[in-house]
Amino acid sequence: MKQDEGFAAGARAALPVVLGYLSIGFAAGVVQRAAGLSVAEVVLMSTVLYAGSAQFAAAGMIAAAAQPGAVIATVFFVNLRHLLLSAALAPFFARLPAWKNALLGAQLTDETFVVAWTRLQGARNVSPAWMAGLNVSAYLSWALATAAGALAGDLVADTRSLGFDFALPAMFAALLVLQLASHSSQARALSVAVLSAGIAVGTALALPGHWGIIAATLLGATLGLILERWKSAPKSC
Asked: Cβ of 65: how many Cβ atoms within 10 Å?
């Protein structure tokens, strides 16, 4: 195995995700403690559920005394996107045994998917060891950060005062730059990104809730597919 395809290389590739998770995870731990969860419950949720958006949603619903069934249903629907992420990467690990695929898929997140997909778009190999290094590094950083946030929950009243609310968009902005830089057609990728951002903002201003994210995802992906098909279509003389 080449040096840039092993576990250590995957762990190094996870650095942007790890830096983001340290602050976001700390904020998640504080929020979950404020919702009434114990430190042990926060750690259990982070290690078993391991989904930032779902954990924030669950914490808010628990604080509002929502029914357990409603919390479970919300977490389920919020995390449905992971089926799409796993399906996109599955062909590259088709030769692995099912149990190894299950382990890699269970630790996949939006951020680790972006890092892995960016590498694949750059025509570089993603080995199981590399993917494991990426996933495990992100997983451990999230678990440790949420545990630290839970322990410090009584000391930090508002995570926004520490700038933690800026960590998530900053991390995704950095990952977006990496994707644009590695794309074969940066102009096309930038067009899709700008359109998706415009749709997200416009929909958020017009409709309540998180419909902007859904609309931007569907329409942005559709535009990207159309442009990709148009580029690869045979040109008529």
From this structure: 7
